[in-house]
């Protein structure tokens, strides 16, 4: 016998099936919507956020390379950049698979006591934003919930930074600037500081011989007064300044006689702890000392001094400054030069000697002298008279010969003492007798056959001609 199902039951099943399909569809739609939103934020917006930072840092790297050229290749520094009022700017073509763009500006915002410029880099990186024009997944922000809209500054139609703060972020020149396609822009600021040569007492390229058995190398800080020995007295207030008489050798050739109150580093040497070295020893410290060239930033030479023969008393017409000194070019230096102070002003004089130096120099207090020499130096220690006693006030720079097989020479004999610095990476430095020296030296080889004492002045660490640049600050403008 056949049993017939009531038609009302068929209708109920159909309704249940349709409701189930609706619920599953709603769940699937919600999941798909959230997935698309999360994919849009994670794949497009987060990627663009990170890529814009990479683009900004790429602009910073380009600018940093140009800054270093001011030392190593000054004739080509900032070639192709726009210079408006001393501010250099550059916008290279877009790069990368996602067509990233960057803009960098560079300006010298500060000059140190040696006249070396410090540079500020401001770089902007822009990455296009693809996908949905929705800021993010969560726009809420209250005491219990923090949405992430504020983390990503997305410009869908207009550049929010220019509109709110102006193109330079100083509230000047605010404007509504349209963008297409949508973008994320990030801005970074970097500060570069000059690297100066006198961070150690003695630094040599090839070999170090000395000091003699009765000589020594220690340190002090001229900012705290004149030198006196205190390296063996921990209770002295200047004891901490007395153990920085460091020696660095970019080879294995190290020969020691007297005491060293500081660290010793070599490149492959075999220096072992002993009673004469009062510091750490590291035989695996290579470094690079590049050849030295006459700075391109020097002003035009003054015609009032072209030779130094006989007795010459130099009194510049103006005091000058560290960044704009009185500059002279002389063909010979065999006489006695006295450099006088202009009034009561700190006086700055730079001299380029195109030949050898065999004469004497007397630098009066409050006078700062830099001597660049193409040839060799052969004098007695008493011929180097720096009346201030501050080594940074008398600096010698050996210009490396164009032929790298030629070695300069610096020979200093007794009697006498002196305060000065030498930066001559292509020179063999030779000192005889027992002069007492305050200052620092960078040379090709250092040889002492006497008992001279060297006192490194820690105040020199930030002084002297720039030999490179380094990054000292990195911040991001999060506005």
Q: What does this molecule look like?
A:
- With 479 residues, the chain is α/β, with parallel strands linked by helices.
- It has 2 domains: 37-195 and 470-477, no CATH class; 202-469, no CATH class.
- The protein is built from 2 helices and 27 strands.
- The chain has helices spanning 7-72, 160-165; strands spanning 82-84, 87-90, 101-111, 117-128, 154-155, 183-195, 202-209, 216-220, 247-249, 253-255, 259-260, 264-266, 281-282, 311-314, 326-330, 336-339, 347-353, 360-363, 367-373, 377-380, 384-386, 394-398, 408-413, 418-431, 436-448, 453-457, 468-477.
- The strands form 3 sheets. The protein has a 16-stranded parallel sheet that branches. Strands 1, 2, 3, 4, 5, 6 and 27 form a 7-stranded antiparallel sheet that branches.
- A hairpin with a 2-residue loop joins strand 1 and strand 2 (87-90).
- The longest helix is centred in the first third of the chain and has 66 residues, at 7-72.
Radius of gyration: 34 Å
Q: What ranges have pLDDT less than 50 throughout 5 or more consecutive residues? A: none
How many helices in DSSP terms?
Answer: 2
Give a quick account of the main beta sheet: strands, pairing sense, barrel closure: 16 strands, parallel
The 3D shape can be described as elongated
Number of strands: 27
| Average pLDDT taken over every residue | 89
Total domain units:
2
